[in-house]
């Protein structure tokens, strides 16, 4: 048992956070880019036009991807609990 076990656990946790945040943020980022291009092309400077679609897409990604997100967290937690004996010994 060495520090590499703890580094692996931390690496898995950071990778999980990156995947989960990316699943929520990337659709919002794409919609924000599309809206920004639309606003630049039409010279519309309405703040709610850029905020509301991103909010809706973020909420929809949480609604439709929530089951997958929760399953990933549960899988990591089960792996983490199962690895407790190897960390203690």
Describe the protein.
With 89 residues, this protein is mainly α. The chain is 91% helix and 0% strand. The protein is built from 3 helices and no strands. The chain has helices spanning 3-42, 47-82, 84-88. The longest helix is centred in the N-terminal third of the chain and has 40 residues, at 3-42. It is elongated, with a radius of gyration of 19 Å.
- Tell me the distance between the termini: 7 Å
Classify the beta-strand content into a percent band. under 5%
The string of secondary-structure elements, in order, is HHH
Provide a count of the helices: 3
Helix content: over 70%
Rg result: 19 Å
> Stretches where pLDDT falls below 50 for ≥5 residues?
none
Notable features of this structure?
89 residues; mainly alpha
In short:
With about 90 residues, this protein is mainly alpha-helical. The chain has helices spanning about 5-40, 45-80, 85-89. The mean pLDDT is about 90.
Q: How would the blueprint of this fold be written?
A:
Blueprint: H1 3-42, H2 47-82, H3 84-88
Helix pairs in contact: 1-2
């Amino acid at each position: 048992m060495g520090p590499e076990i703890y580094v692996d656990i931390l690496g898995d946790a950071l990778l999980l956070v990156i995947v989960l945040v990316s699943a929520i943020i990337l659709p919002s980022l794409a919609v924000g880019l599309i809206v920004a291009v639309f606003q630049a092309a039409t010279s519309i400077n309405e703040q709610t036009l850029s905020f509301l679609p991103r909010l809706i897409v973020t909420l929809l990604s949480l609604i439709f991807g929530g089951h997958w997100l929760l399953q990933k967290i549960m899988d990591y937690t089960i792996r983490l609990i199962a690895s407790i004996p190897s960390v203690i010994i």
